[in-house]
Structure formats: structure tokens, C-alpha cells
Amino acid sequence: MAAYILRRLLLVIPTLWAIITINFFVIQIAPGGPVEQAVAQLEGHSSGIMERFSGGGQEVQLDGAGEGEQASGYRGSRGLDPEVVEAIKKQFGFDKPMLERYIDMLKNYATFNFGESLFKGGNVIDLIIERLPVSISLGLWSTIIIYLVSIPLGIAKAIHHGSRFDVWSSAVVIVGYAVPGFLFAILLIIFFASGNYFSWFPLRGLVSADWDQMTWYQQIGDYFWHLALPTLAMVIGGFATLSMLTKNSFLDEINKQYVVTARAKGLDENNILYRHVFRNAMLIIIAGFPSAFISIFFTGSMLIEVMFSLEGIGLLGFESTIQRDYPVVFSSLYIMTLLGLLLNILSDITYTLVDPRIDFEAR
User: Fold this and answer.
1) 130, 285, 300, 334: least surrounded by Cβ within 10 Å?
2) In this model, does residue 168 exceed pLDDT 90?
3) Angle formed by the axes of helices 2-29 and 326-354, to 10°?
4) If pLDDT is split at 50, 70 and 90, which confidence band does 60 have?
5) Between these two residues, 53 and 333, which has the higher pLDDT value?
6) How far is CA 207 from CA 56, 114, 135, 230, in A?
């Protein structure tokens, strides 16, 4: 097992390199990079923005006050001075050839040096760490709730296979699966947070503004109070897949010969189900927990974060992509890919913990 884990860890390196390399060159050739964004700002396409670019002893200042904006004596309708554009390129590091920028990025990422954000200001890793609590909270609690509901439901459906309960519960979870999370979030906001019907839950942030002045138990309550609606919006579509997987896994085990033998020996049905069937049937479900968590963590929260004004990784990645803030985009991709690969290894390890008969060294 140690040799298998070592091989998997070594495979992380070329996998990370391939993903980062493909994304780097695809994004580099896409139109509308950070230089174009800055030029557009200087030309008056964005208002209320102050940017400074220094290059060759020259400073260019933009004050987004309207048509009277000037940059080194320039008015937007006259076109930018080439020296100003070159100063912008130097500020963002685009005065270097693409291959040199690529090599510099690989060197920096090998030492976890992610640089500075082009548009948000501040260190990239600090921005990501600042947003992590929101995304981890949404991903973790959503995954736990989905597992706590889907596993008992799947077992009950397997026991009562073909009954009216099985049919109706399948219909309910499939309808839930068909409802987009953002649409359900809108309904939750309208009914429980907008004040049109009820105003039971907050609409903004992970905690209240006076969170620091609360007692520890009030802080816990306030935290879950803010998480209630966004978490509920995220889990609505997550029950169907896991419930059906649990049901089918139990049905498959229940029909095996060792269960027939146990029944022939006169063992109690609950004893057969929870002492013999449960461990075998739950193997794939329990071992898949790390992958399920990282899947929800990556893909499920961006729209929810936007709708509930939660500053998480999903919203950060979306904003950075729109702004072409390459350091933040590539750093987020790098960290999340690395985390996903490590959790996949953890998932394999979990298989062996749940069922020691599994041996990844077997040929």
C-alpha cells in the first residue's frame, strides 16, 4: 500500500503540470487579457476606477470621472500613446515572451509562490485563504447533509423495493434533482428572506456584523443561521444520485448467496442487513465521500455564493476569470486541482480501511 501511495503522489506532479500547461496556453491566446482590460479602463470604458502604471520612469494615472479622463494628457477619443501601452504591459509582466512567462510561472508554483493579484490587490494566497471558510462551509455541510439523508433513504428504498414508498420517494428525489439549485435559492429568498412573506434568515455574509461581540454559543447559532438557506439550496439536487446508488448497492448485496445462507440459518433480518449486508454495500458509498465533497466544493457553490452575497472561492474564480486576473485564476486552479488529486488518493485509502480485502498492490 505504501508503494501504491508513493506512485500516486508522484503522478500528481505530471498531472498538475499538464493541467496548468494546457490552461496557461489556452487562456494566453484568448482575447481580452489584463492588458486589454487596463487599456479599456484608460479609454473610459469603466468608470470610477483609479489605476497607476509605472514604466520607464513614467507614471500614468486614470481617474474615472467621465469623458474628461486623461492619462498623460490623453483623452479617450484620441487613442492611447504606445508608451502608455508598453508601460501597462511591463506592469503586468506582459513585456516578456509567452514562453518565459510560462517558465517563470512553473518555477513560482513549484515553491507555492503565487504572486500578486492584478486587479484586486494583495497576495493571491491571502485572497484564497480569505475566501476558503465560505466554500469549505458550504461544501462540507452540504455533503454531510446529503449523506445523512440519502443513505437511510436508500436503505429504506432497498428494503421496500417496488412498494409505494419506493415509487413516491423516487419521484420526489428526481424532481429535486431536476430543479436547478439557483432556482430553488430564488424561491427560498423570496419566501424566507426577502420580507415579502417572511424574513427569518439573513441574505448576506457568513456571519453577522457583530459576530465578535457574541458568546461562543451565539456565534455557532449565528453561523448556522446564515448557512441555512444557501446550504439547503445546494443540497436539493444532491439526494437523487446517492439515494439510488445506495439502494442499488443494497439490492445487489441482498440477492447474493451469503444473504440467502444467513436467512436459511434463521438469522434475524435486521441482523443480516446491518451486520452482513451493510459493510459490503456501503463500501463504494463511504469511500466516495472525499470525491463527493470536492465535487460539491468545486462546482456547486458559485451561483449560490453570488445570490447570498457569500465571498467564496467560486465567486473569486468567476470574478477573476471575467477580469482576466491570471495570477488568481491559475493559482485557484492549481490549488483546487492539487486538493482534488490528494482527496482522490484519500478516497482509495478509504477503500482499504472500509474493506481490508482490497489490495491495490494485487496484480
Assistant:
1) 130
2) yes
3) 160
4) very low
5) 333
6) 46, 29, 14, 13
Q: How many other β-carbons are positioned within 10 Å of the β-carbon of residue 261?
A: 12
Does 156 score more than 70 pLDDT?
Answer: yes
Give the pairing type, strands 58-63 and 50-55.
antiparallel
Q: DSSP letters of 59-124? A: EEEEE--STT--BTTB-GGG---HHHHHHHHHHHTTTS-HHHHHHHHHHHHHTT---B-SSS-SBH
In the chain, which residues fall in CATH 1.10.3720.10? 125-354
| Domain 125-354, CATH | 1.10.3720.10
DSSP 116-160: B-SSS-SBHHHHHHHHHHHHHHHHHHHHHHHHHHHHHHHHHHHHT
* Vertex 239 angle, CA 234 and 242, to 5°: 125
Nearest to 235 by CA among 188, 268, 193, 165: 188
Cβ contacts of 331 within 8 Å, gap of 6 or more = 109, 114, 115, 124, 125, 128
Q: Find out whether 179 and 237 touch, Cβ atoms under 8 Å.
A: yes
Beta bridge partners of 53: 60
CB-CB contact of 132 with 72 (8 Å)? no
Residue range 24-57, pLDDT digits in tens: 888 777 666 666 666 666 666 443 333 444 444 4
Distance separating alpha carbons of residues 142 and 134, to the nearest angstrom:
12
Phi, psi of 55 (to 5 degrees): -170, 130
